[in-house]
């Protein structure tokens, strides 16, 4: 201290003496300040042990059976990759624009800090880059700044410099680059270069071109301002700046730069938001099943989290087939919606039925919230009708923004037809396509796994199968005449077709293929309700069905996925197969954690011979029965068996199709059970549900990759089965029965509209 005082005393001008005293004091305070940060007085600074063991929160990925990434579950969208997967030009672009002296400094680049102070801040030269090194930026990625106040920036910067130095002591340069590129944010909750490459260019990092790599690196300065989806021109300018720094650092030639800077961004944007993209209903069902799996694993002491553990989930879904199924759904449901609305015209219930509109409104979240707050019905409906705000309204043609009330929105969406559609491998139960509804953003309810609807005539094959199991011969004839059943409380089912069919006697095959209601009930009466219900249970129907005669016409409510499971019995000699969605679950490094196999019922629900008979009957449904438009309208010559279904008042339309390697089930209807199709011509299964399958099969027929499905042929039935079915389809009653028909016959209960 005496030496310092002696030196200062020799400085004659007082102001210089005070200046140097100030400088010395500032340096002392700076050392104390930095030391206090280092010691944790301004908040803890991670030590080397902590920095050696940090772990990423990694998104879980969902893949199709053919290994196409279709979705992610995450808190932060991140997929870490190794250094070997970074193309050299990506690293060159990063170092050129962010940290030219990366391989020379030890975490902090003091010459660059000085350069920033002069060139970037004072002269406004952005091409000079920033003052933070990649190591410092990694420190910020790992420990984001919690407080954005200006007064804390200096503390944060010094902390990052300390952490950067420690990182350089622990990791080599390649490891630092790896950690940085795996943690850096690209906006939109996207972290790491792999997730960014997939999102913006639909490619893996290792396949990024020079210009694509430069675009992504360019985003790091301002992830929103240089987002190529939002600001393509600004992004292009920034990309070209990155390319120019690569020229400056001799990573690319001037000639290459001149060619690359002319290119468009070439965006191929894929948002892995769970509400959009391919198969959102399928991905949501996979998520639910994955949560159940992790819950079981965690109970066994294995800690897995689907949002942070980086699981890879390989599913059964066929990527191309799902695309075609969704295209077919749009092609069919758009025009069907238009026909549906036109059939009602100005008298549509969503326009005129005030009681129904209020009933639907009471199911809404807006109504329930106001009711919970103690408002009366009158006050609630006044508020829901009067208060208007801007809303985005969806239709099959477009999305439009309008000033609407909640009641306006409710009425708009009341009229929407919805659908559920699934395709399975009938031998294994693997789900190949899954469409749970028309629009996941607007209608989250899944009509495959959640919705229970009356299944109409798609239940009739179970009745006929039970009859065969009870020994009733397939060439047994049943009269189509309407009968009032005294033993069934006076119930009198009727048909929706020509009244002349009352004078016809149908074989079982013809009765099923033409879906004659009166025949189905008579077959069930002869078989027994309990026997029918017992068989349905053996075939995989888990729902509790009503023990009533109307069950023959499909009045029981069943989930679509259960109906599909039951129909697999016909393809497996009476043994049903459980539909399943997940094949394997692995770690991020592809270590197997779980695998799932087909689950086939142990015991056959019916004999193999009776299964053959039923398949022949259902082939007749396609060739000459209620589903014959498969042949006449859609010109499909594939081997197909099937069954249509339409429920009371045309509220549910169904179609089931079976082929050697494909089982397909489709339902179409409205979420609000109070509304049905206006008439049978629009709402019958053959018109409302069948076309989704027919359009899909037409597309598959044109693609050779589906030859194993489209060109597959049913095995020929045994000679005995052919003999058992060798009979006239119809026998007519005599002339006198028609002449003396009683026109005043009492009919106490009808189920018109069912096929």
Model description:
- InterPro entries: Beta-lactam/transpept-like, Glyco_trans_51, Glycosyltr_51/Transpeptidase, Lysozyme-like_dom_sf, PBP_transglycosylase, PCN-bd_Tpept.
- Pathway: Cell wall biogenesis; peptidoglycan biosynthesis.
- The chain crosses the membrane at residues 15-39.
- Its main location: membrane.
- This protein has 32 helices and 19 strands.
- The strands form 6 sheets. The protein has a 5-stranded mixed beta sheet, with helices on one face. The protein has a 5-stranded antiparallel beta sheet with strand order 9-8-18-17-16, with helices on both faces.
- A hairpin with a 5-residue loop joins strand 14 (582-586) and strand 15 (592-595).
- Residues 746-754 have low confidence and may be disordered.
- It has 755 residues and is α+β, with helices and mostly antiparallel strands.
Key features of this structure:
five-stranded mixed beta sheet, cell wall biogenesis/degradation, alpha+beta, 755 residues, 44% helix, five-stranded antiparallel beta sheet, 19 strands, hydrolase, 32 helices, elongated, disordered C terminus, transmembrane, Beta-lactam/transpept-like
Largest sheet: 5 strands, mixed
Helix content: 40-55%
**Annotation, overall tally of beta strands:** 19
- What structural category arises from helix and sheet content? alpha+beta
Return the average pLDDT rounded to an integer: 87
Span of the ends, CA to CA? 106 Å
Strand order of the largest sheet: 2-1-5-14-15
Given as residue ranges, the uncertain stretches (5+ residues, pLDDT < 50) are 746-754
User: What's the total helix number?
Assistant: 32
Q: What percentage of the residues does DSSP assign to strands (E)?
A: 5-15%
What is the 3D form? elongated
Radius of gyration: 35 Å
Family: In the C-terminal section; belongs to the transpeptidase family. In the N-terminal section; belongs to the glycosyltransferase 51 family.
Organism: Maribacter flavus
Pfam family, one: Transpeptidase
Main location: membrane
